[in-house]
Amino acid sequence: MSAPRLYVVATPIGNLADLSPRAQQILAEVDLIAAEDTRHTGRLLQHFNIKANLISVHDHNERQRADMIIDRLQQGQQIALVSDAGTPLISDPGFVLVRAVREAGFEVSPVPGCCAFVAALSASGMPSDRFSFEGFLPAKSGARQQALSELAEATQTLIFYESTHRIVDSLRDMQATLGADRFVLVARELTKTFETIKGAPLNQLLEWIQADPNQQRGEFVVIVQGAPARADTGISIEAQRILGLLAAELPPKKAAALTAEITGANKKALYQLLLDKKG
Ligand code: SAM
After folding, report:
1. Residue-wise pLDDT tens digits, 54-91
2. Is 36 in a helix, a strand, or coil?
3. Is ligand 1 within 6 A of the CB of residue 40?
4. Which of 124, 219, 222, 224 for mutating ligand 1's site (highest number of atoms within 8 Å of CB)?
5. Do residues 235 and 259 touch, judged by C-beta distance below 8 A?
6. Could you tell me if the CB of 14 is within 6 A of ligand 1?
7. pLDDT per residue over 213-260, tens digit each?
């Protein structure tokens, strides 16, 4: 370590043993650590017996801190950026700082490690060749359903972060917008004592999580299987959702006929889809 540089250092998402030896070395050697929450990072450093100068960098002071950090880099210092857990900038502060430092002409180096969604995806068995990370959904149900509706036809795997307060409401909104059959996996408390990974069609997953309040506690990654490619059925996700709702109340022929009327989809194809599902 010699030239001035900003290191973006990933920290554990639960299990402290996941802090890499390289991350430990860099955190011990830099002149300054910019942390999302200095008390939180202080405890991590204490665990590893690392003494360091800390300053806070969060959503509300990032611009101002960026100027100060660029000053320090101009003085030849080495600086590390960390967040409370996982990789900085991934649903965490740091973007404004990293961009400003690069624009000022200084090097920024990643020190990779934990990231909750990558950890969840790697153990999920869900298609990982194409996925989109969507971060946190909106807090209010109306906006959340709108955001989910916009993603309903996406064929790639969809990945969300969710908190203990909203996990059930979000899964309910997913059922309302994506349909009860959509396969979804929740990865809870990864790398911690109560790590749980469970995948099922949404209606079964909701039943399971609602039956056990313990399964609603902690931190969650939610992974949603992509929609089947249009060519598979020729029927839109919205038409399939309406068909599913009507078929729960009406005989298959009536459900198919009404769905065709509402959505303009082909009646025969809708009826065939119901038969295939039954089969
Ligand atoms: N920067 C972090 C990363 O690299 O994953 C994410 C920070 S974001 C503010 C926090 C969210 O990440 C939590 O609400 C949860 O959705 C997810 N998360 C963090 N740790 C987790 C864990 N151990 N298990 C499951 N999800 C976790």
Report:
1. 999 999 999 999 999 999 999 999 999 999 999 999 99
2. coil
3. no
4. 219
5. no
6. yes
7. 999 999 999 999 999 876 567 788 889 889 999 999 999 999 999 999
SS3 of 107, please?
Answer: strand
3-state secondary structure of 106: coil
Tokens encoding 197: 């990974």
- Angstrom distance (rounded) from CA 268 to CA 246: 16
How far is the C-alpha of 78 from the C-alpha of 101, rounded, in Å? 12
The length of the chain in residues reads: 279
Give, to the nearest 10 degrees, the angle between helix 95-103 and helix 62-74: 40
| Ligand 1 centroid to residue 60 C-alpha, Å | 20
The pTM score is 0.87
Establish how many alpha carbons lie within 13 A of residue 72's alpha carbon, considering only the half-sphere containing its beta carbon.
19
Rg (C-alpha) for the chain, rounded Å, is 23
| Residue (of 241, 244, 179, 168) closest to 206 by Cα position | 168
Compute the C-alpha angle 133/138/139, nearest 5°: 135
CA–CA distance, 81 with 50 (Å, rounded to integer)? 15
Distance CA 97, CA 146 (A): 31
Q: Is the CB of 91 under 6 A from ligand 1?
A: yes
Which atom of ligand 1 sits closest to the CA of residue 192?
23
270 lines ligand 1 (CB under 6 A): no
Rounded to an integer, what distance in angstroms lies between the CA atom of residue 114 and that of residue 192?
13
Distance from Cα 53 to the centre of ligand 1, integer Å:
25
> Which pair of structure tokens corresponds to residue 108?
């920024």
One-letter amino acid of 65: R
User: Residue 86 C-alpha to ligand 1 middle, in angstroms?
Assistant: 7
